Amino acid sequence: MIRLTEIATAPVKGFALEHRDEVYLGAHGVTDNRRFLLVDGEGRRLRSSVTAWPIVVSATYDEEREELTMRFPDGRELTASAAGGDEVVRFDVTSGAIETRVVPGPWTEPLSELAGHPVRVVRPERAGASLVAPATFVSRASLDRLGEEAGRAIDSRRFRMLFTIDGCRAHEEDEWDGRTARVGGALLRFGGPVERCAMTTRDPYTGTRDLDTLRLIRGYRGMPRKGKIDFGVYADIIEPGLVRVGDSVELA
What we know:
By secondary structure, the protein is mainly beta.
């Protein structure tokens, strides 16, 4: 039986992941997942594939109170309103062009200190706007298969997926494109593969490059989609619902 074994989210894109026991999957995914992004002083999005330092910062988002809390490596914990101001920043993400509002707060200075240049927090107008799809899946068997190539265990956080599952063959999830599945209270439809970037080459706790995942994946999987290295799959939400660790993945 295929079961959900891990749920991982981050309210700020690129920040440390938090493992959770349950999440509510709405039409656009988990509302507090990647709800905020980082931009530089010119309004350009900071890409996690080339910007490692955000991974050492963690955050929580209280949607009801509209508050964002950030915890920094030096022990500082800063909480302030996450509602966003009047300044608008527009830029492109993988899913297309989005409009965001700058979220001023006490975190602006310490984030800029870590980066060595001006950094601001921005908030897309719509939850999930920065995501290619509202959900992502990878199987433990796929991670273990990559581990065979690497000669070491692979931490699921390296791939920053919303869901990790167990009970299927390595890369079996790639065969589910177009199929639906009941997961807890939600009904999902699996989509295409997730294209991987250099972020996966970084240690998920320190951000340092320590494993050439892209070379390893390409070496044993090739590139069925020309120029793209895939690992894991996307999914859309057909019926929203509560999803918990331990829920079965019931394929139709």
